[in-house]
Design a protein that fits this description.
By secondary structure, the chain is α/β, with parallel strands linked by helices. About 45% of the residues lie in helices and about 10% in strands. It contains 9 helices and 6 strands; from the N terminus they run H-E-H-E-H-E-H-H-E-H-E-E-H-H-H.
Length: about 240
């Protein structure tokens, strides 16, 4: 995927759900994966021509697994946005102290809390997260199969306790397109050192969608379109969908 196509997707998401306002200071959650770095690259590109002026602040929450952020940090510097790294012991707490059998939910909450705190401390009013189209559809099916509810995270969410908004500008980008963009642009993707990586409920659902897609044409796209028309809280666009 080329930068022009990425920016087209992101501009449409930002406009459909009014994600950016004049003088926003937007933290970019940087995991070091292909989605977050694609998001950062796209936001830096969008910043150059979007009619509403905004700042971006990349923030990485280190979980304490010994990940080396040097290449990621150098990449952020190269596009003019220094990386802020928040050191935590989340990995130690979850895997060694609490010995969680299902660690992902607690880890996500703790990472989100650390990111929110850092964003607030740096004067940001919004946080951009790198969730792509596949993530949104997977979360929908996870909620349906494991929690018996119709839900997925919204394009824009207000965190009232922190007075922060979360936005998801990659919502129209497929996971494969993010991989393609990162590879073609030599983006230094950080290896995930989490012990639970590749062995999660999300991976089960990802595989299920892949299997069903062999039988049902465009399952991902149709499910995503259904979500947009579903009336799920936060999913009503601010302008008519194309």
């Amino acid at each position: 995927m080329k930068l022009q196509k990425l920016l087209s997707y992101m501009r449409r998401a930002v406009d459909d759900y009014e994600m950016i306002e004049e003088n926003d200071k937007i933290a970019i959650g940087i995991s070091g994966g292909k989605d977050s770095l694609t998001l950062l690259t796209g936001m830096a590109g969008l910043q150059r021509f979007y009619p509403k002026k905004f700042e971006i602040v990349p923030i990485a929450v280190s979980l304490g697994f010994g990940s080396d952020y040097s290449e990621v940090s150098a990449y952020c510097e190269s596009i003019g946005h220094p990386l802020h790294i928040v050191e935590t012991q989340i990995g130690e707490i979850i895997f060694n102290e609490r010995k969680e059998t299902n660690p992902c939910s607690l880890c996500a909450k703790m990472r989100k809390g650390a990111l929110n705190d850092a964003a607030s401390a740096l004067g940001c009013n919004k946080i951009a997260l790198g969730h792509n189209k596949d993530d949104i559809v997977e979360t929908f099916y996870m909620s349906l199969f494991f929690e018996a509810r119709i839900y997925t995270f919204a394009p824009v969410t207000f965190l009232d306790r922190k007075e922060l908004y979360s936005i998801r500008p990659l919502m129209y980008v497929k996971e494969g397109e993010a991989w393609s963009f990162a590879a073609k642009n030599n983006i230094p993707v950080l290896k995930n050192l989490c012990p639970a990586d590749g062995n999660t409920k999300r991976e089960e659902i990802k595989q299920l969608i892949k299997d069903l897609s062999g039988t049902y044409d465009n399952l991902l796209g149709k499910t995503f379109s259904a979500i947009q028309r579903s009336g799920i809280r936060g999913w009503t666009p601010k302008r008519p969908l194309k």
